[in-house]
């Protein structure tokens, strides 16, 4: 199973950004020699991608999206952004938010996006290789509610926020956090980002995200990540270490804080994930192809803008196209339509050579079969579709409204199974087992052979949740379901959590910064 | 969505067997003009297959399996079979069951297997195109137990047997039955096959299976299928209309009744599905590659024997390699190892140009998340791995020990989602929706547009089970799980069951035959 680690170390070494900038440094060194026990820290997907669009169909969607940007344009809700777009050559009308983009301008701009880069964590062994064949899983982000079986579904709060962040630290398959797993509304919005980002530094040693909710929050996050890594502002600018998700307000609009986020993050060479939220039948056309046209127009617009801000800034192409339940208007996830959109999105992202962000989605209200099959369909689509960065990979349920502790465990198990699936099949002479077959012969049994005894302990993936006891034994045990097992396991895992080591000087500097910024009132709010 | 139907009709027309024998006749005509409302009757998988083995690794497994057949050989537990093998050129030792096969003999024999053929049902609209890009789903077979929520888990019986067969008739996505969905042990074994096969003719109009449990049972089944189709023995021999699953007794042994089954079925041009049951670590080497070597040796031996019986007889390559839980020895299904074995098996079957049989498996004891994720992993593997015929596609749970009514419904929903996923994405100008995007513009909404209104009723797959109500509405409804919905739906569906029409003369002939054979005592048993 060590192939995963070895291969990805190579991937990291060969990423474009690394080569271009020669900034691998400390991080680069360490990722080449990963410590033991980190079987899931680096995943490489060497399988051929599944293509749901033929070459002609792909070009139809590409062309149509460029026509949208040329003829319809986007509403760009920030004067500074419109000014930058005008300077780059876009068609900006005075007194209007509407901006139109020549296709040549878009294609020129997106050509400078790096196809691969490294996202740096405060622990270099947690650095992430983004793009190419690399596959990274990020925890759920931004749920307003949190749930476990005993506590039920409740509003997000700091205690649950911290528990979920700790769980993300516990599993190597969760490569990074992805925003606040749940929104802790018991912390005032003016200082919430300070407490939450400090927790992400202290409770984990993995890469994290900052919300683009106004310039000051971006700046605070940039300073916190700089302190956390113990580096200079110059080194931070050379080494992308923070990411932000930018959503367009579909259809065809980019709001002020989002545009500001691109400006602050891209200008400092930090990572922007440009993700339109194009629900077919609601904020996008009711056809999957039409929704993809709109997704692509919005994504390319935001990505092009990141390059207007700074050529070569790291950015990802985000796909989030799904459909709505046409009976109720409720968003649906993990559907056949979602699968096709994920795979087609991957084809578009690869056409442009831009790393591809996807999601592990479902719309279940509890941890039942639906939660599993919708998530598994999402995982199937994004694995075969070539997702590079999977947000909401662990813990997402109820269409993203709820962060579930039990679903987090279910997802960890499913993600680990994806990772095992991606591990190349060993066909060495020893694995072909001709001698064992000769030894056992017709009518024999393999349980006691030397070939089996030498391998049985690590031969197969041992699931966290699957209950493979026979019916009688399972009945004696009280007939536990996956939900029961997940409920037990998340509590056991939390009890085993250990805070990752940190330089006391860094912790002190972080504490001082957060205290000062809180004294200053954080970020003013109108409530 | 009509592409599925149209494309598969073409597939049926272009199958090798059809061309070779020019026997399309009645069946061929009708399948070209499928009736309305049969969206799921024919599935075609036009996606590129996922390959987990590179060309070299595939040859390693191929070579090793031929070495096994040459050097180790198989135990062939029927004198008549050994005599036929000897006549064909195999190395048969007097006074021993062991038979060894030169690789040239094996490769020569399997070269005459048809790569595609049609399996004929008594209703020609239910004919099945086997092989190529065609994908066929068969119901669960051979479970000793049956379960639903109210009745719990109980021994198989005729009432439940009939209910499950009726359910298979109710859904077009279940293309055929696959043996007895549950073993009705309340019917004496001497006449069980007569009652059960008559039910398969009367309660469904789909293709069915016969067990190879001695020559007489095969002969009774052949007569029942001939009567059911209302054709002559000659036409039956020209049109494969019955299939049997032949399991090797792994490792490397074929028992008497199984060999007899190949002889009776292949000699009459009926379909043999040759499926080794190679659990890695138990009846096969503990490595997936080693288990595949053994699977391939056993499968090729049985397939080659079918061609020794009759050149060109239709046969499928069955893959059923999984692993055991090394802590308990319990079989595991729907695992990452199972997925790789399914995909590698598909590569082997395609290398030989033989239709590929797979299964929709899981080892869950109830309808929880595990049942869904293990099944979905199986479906992912067999879809991307190029399965042509999927046994146990609906209703299988607990590692095949139990036929579950609720799991049947869950599987129907998941199979339909696979079918929808395989439907090509529409990228016509109308689907690209440029005019709708122009009309709505930035900041608008698509709910009320003409483009949406014209399509919303059929735009997306409407799942049977997924509960997409919001949390509050779902809570008011009593928080039903997937299990609850499936329990309700199977009862509703059973209540709506209608017996398919049948010629009264055929029904009369069938009844007379079964009565006569019962009077004769059926097939003698020693109990």
TrEMBL record, chains A, B:
Belongs to the trimethylamine methyltransferase family. Residues 1-38 are annotated as: Disordered. GO terms for molecular function: methyltransferase activity. This is Methyltransferase. GO terms for biological process: methanogenesis; methylation. Residues 1-15 have a biased composition (Low complexity). Its EC number is 2.1.1.-. Keywords: Methyltransferase, Transferase. The keyword Transferase applies. Pfam families: MTTB. Residues 27-38 have a biased composition (Basic and acidic residues).
């Amino acid at each position: 199973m060590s192939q995963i680690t070895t291969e990805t170390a190579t991937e990291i070494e060969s990423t474009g950004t690394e080569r271009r900038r020669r900034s691998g440094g400390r991080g680069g060194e360490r990722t080449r020699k990963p410590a033991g026990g980190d079987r899931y820290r680096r995943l490489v997907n060497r399988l051929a991608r599944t293509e749901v669009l033929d070459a002609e169909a792909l070009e139809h969607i590409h062309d149509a999206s460029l026509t949208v940007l040329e003829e319809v344009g986007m509403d760009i809700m920030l004067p500074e952004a419109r000014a930058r777009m005008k300077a780059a050559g876009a068609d900006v009308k005075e007194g209007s938010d509407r901006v139109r983009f020549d296709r040549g301008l878009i294609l020129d701009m997106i050509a400078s996006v790096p196809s691969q880069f490294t996202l740096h964590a405060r622990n270099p062994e947690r650095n992430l290789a983004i793009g190419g064949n690399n596959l990274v899983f990020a925890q759920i982000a931004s749920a307003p509610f949190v749930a476990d079986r005993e506590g039920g579904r409740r509003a997000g709060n700091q205690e649950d926020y911290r528990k979920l962040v700790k769980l993300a630290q516990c599993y190597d398959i969760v490569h990074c956090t992805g925003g606040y797993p749940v929104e802790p509304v018991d912390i005032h919005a003016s200082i919430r980002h300070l407490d939450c980002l400090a927790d992400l530094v202290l409770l984990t040693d993995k890469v994290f995200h900052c919300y683009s909710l106004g310039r000051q929050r971006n700046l605070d996050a940039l300073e916190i990540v700089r302190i956390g890594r113990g580096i200079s502002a110059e080194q931070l600018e050379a080494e992308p270490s923070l990411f932000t998700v930018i959503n367009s307000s579909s259809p065809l609009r980019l709001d002020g804080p989002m545009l500001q986020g691109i400006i602050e993050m891209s200008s400092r060479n930090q990572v922007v994930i440009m993700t339109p939220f194009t629900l077919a039948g609601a904020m996008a056309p009711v056809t999957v192809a039409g929704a993809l046209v709109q997704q692509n127009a919005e994504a390319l617009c935001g990505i092009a803008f990141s390059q207007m801000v700074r050529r070569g800034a790291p950015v990802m192409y985000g796909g989030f196209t799904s459909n709505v339940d046409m009976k109720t208007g409720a968003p649906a996830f993990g559907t056949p339509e979602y699968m096709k959109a994920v795979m087609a999105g991957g084809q578009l992202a690869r056409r442009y050579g831009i790393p591809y962000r996807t999601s592990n989605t479902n719309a279940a209200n509890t941890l039942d079969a639906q939660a599993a099959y919708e998530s598994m369909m999402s995982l199937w689509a994004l694995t075969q579709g070539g997702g590079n960065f999977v947000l909401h990979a662990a813990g997402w349920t109820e269409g993203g409204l709820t962060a579930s502790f039990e679903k987090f465990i279910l997802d960890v198990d499913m993600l680990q199974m994806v990772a095992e699936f991606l591990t190349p099949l060993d066909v060495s002479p020893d694995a072909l087992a001709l001698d064992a077959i000769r030894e056992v012969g017709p009518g024999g049994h393999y349980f006691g052979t030397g070939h089996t005894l030498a391998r049985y302990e690590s031969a197969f993936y041992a699931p966290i949740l699957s209950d493979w006891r026979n019916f009688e034994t399972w009945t004696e045990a009280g007939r536990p379901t996956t939900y029961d097992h997940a409920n037990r396991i998340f509590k056991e895992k939390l009890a085993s959590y250990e805070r990752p080591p940190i330089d006391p000087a860094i912790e002190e500097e972080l504490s001082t910064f957060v205290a000062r910024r809180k004294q200053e009132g954080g970020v003013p709010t109108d409530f």
